């Protein structure tokens, strides 16, 4: 089947021969308008576009460019191209042609995005623009229908209101030492939930209700398998028959597309476990060959890399060895495969029954997944893991469940203690961890109680409430500035976050915090971690050992944060100037401003504190009849 691409003015025209009417598609101002009826294309939405039926293509299936859009995508959100292949093969997933698209920004940035088969003769390419502006793109393939298509898009940066509503619009997750930041440099504190089998056990409305509950509770990550391969609730499976037949069913992934998109749209990053569990779900026995396993990984990476995700190679990878070698070697090989395919190099780890320290030095492994004994000394192990120099992601360290794994008191204690002592990032398991075979499976339990699923989770899941309280209490801290500070306290745990301090006190009570050599004033507040009560404990001065009384005998976390800058000790000087002191953070710049009416503030000087204070002077108005009021405003750091 022949195909030609040529340009007329500002438009690209595609003609595909071999069917009754030519397909004409015009790319106008960076967007696509399709003149062919019945393609199921959409150029208006930024979400995934449903693919064709997963059947052999008809002889008249359209080829070439089918759709592209949205016309002006936001940065770090998927832009999708749909193409029709001339020769998709009988088993396109296994034998079909490959396709890539190269996107080049006006700055010279270049991203090569792989494509994937999505039913019939349709291939899709998903791309996330990493900066605003014009990106030129063109495709490359051995198939004439997929090859040589070219156009451009103009990406836009999200506005302040959009970023305020969804922190993930700041970009993708990036490692910063032991901590995390987003693409724009802002620190990110991941607090998440786990359900390894969500993609095969939950219907889309149930998943959406779950994400709504997580968003309402302030959680921002969720983890689960692309396919665990244990459950078939709803009748969907990635394969028609056994995986060895290589007969992929795109309908399974089209539902997962909507799940991942929905989560991202609500500020929830998705941790995608690409492979299943070697023993628990017999993953390697089902895939059987290294070629088939690599093909699965390559497909998942092509399909989901443009979303806001992190990758996990396998679940509990050390359960068994693959038929083609040892599990540890497979981790290293697959890590290299992931990094070679993913153009955005999303963070990568590997789930293990404890912690895979044998592979953590591999430069392709970005974080250490930890699943260790549920006891009171988890934090000591976390401190030891810091020697590897990478972030610690604590998975499955506790579950909230009515029928089993109910460890709420110990679990939330370890959430605070591990984070404060060693910067361990928490992903626990809410009530949604239960399976359809369990009596407390949330969709069934909510129906029995006459409740919708979102309300059920918000009302019945105390673990979600406690995790929200943790996230709200700690959210102002910058994890990229963390360092252990156990020597600063006489009991409990302590961590330093820049110029702030976090403490954990088992059983509440009092604690001595050594602020020797730390100038300034600090506000102190306390959280009872089981009940969620927050109490302001007043203000303390740095420069020595200070006694903090939590005013509770329950487990508590305490934050000691720099007090807001204030002006103190005003004095009228003989030269008719007013002198005062500025008390604030040490070695920080402040603008001194004045006003007469509290409507308009005018800056009169910029000062820098030393030992958290600075002497200031300001001239009074002539005659001294008009009052003046002064304030200090922190100047943002670099």
Task: Provide a short characterization of the protein structure.
The chain has 638 residues and is α+β, with helices and mostly antiparallel strands. It has 13 helices and 35 strands.
Fold blueprint:
Elements: E1 3-8, E2 11-16, E3 25-28, E4 31-34, E5 64-69, E6 79-84, H1 92-95, E7 99-105, E8 110-117, E9 122-127, E10 133-141, E11 150-155, H2 160-165, E12 173-176, E13 179-182, E14 192-194, H3 198-201, H4 204-217, E15 221-225, H5 250-265, E16 269-273, H6 283-287, H7 290-304, E17 309-312, H8 327-341, E18 348-349, E19 368-370, H9 378-385, E20 392-399, H10 408-422, E21 424-429, H11 442-448, H12 453-460, H13 462-474, E22 482-484, E23 493-497, E24 500-505, E25 510-514, E26 521-528, E27 534-541, E28 545-549, E29 556-562, E30 566-572, E31 577-583, E32 589-595, E33 602-608, E34 613-619, E35 629-634
Parallel strand pairs: 14-15, 14-21, 15-16, 16-17, 17-18, 19-20, 20-21
Antiparallel strand pairs: 1-2, 3-4, 5-6, 6-9, 7-8, 7-10, 8-9, 10-11, 12-13, 22-23, 23-24, 24-29, 25-28, 26-27, 26-29, 30-31, 31-34, 32-33, 32-35
Helix pairs in contact: 4-5, 4-12, 7-8, 9-10, 10-13, 11-12
Task: Explain what you see.
There is one protein chain. By secondary structure, this protein is an alpha+beta fold. It has four domains: 3-155, Immunoglobulin-like; 189-477, TIM Barrel (Alpha-Beta Barrel), CATH 3.20.20; 485-562, Immunoglobulin-like, CATH 2.60.40; 566-634, Immunoglobulin-like (Sandwich), CATH 2.60.40. It has 13 helices and 35 strands. It has an eight-stranded parallel β-sheet. Strand 22 (482-484) and strand 23 form a beta hairpin. It is globular, with a radius of gyration of 28 Å. The termini are far apart. Mean pLDDT is 89; it is low at 1-55.
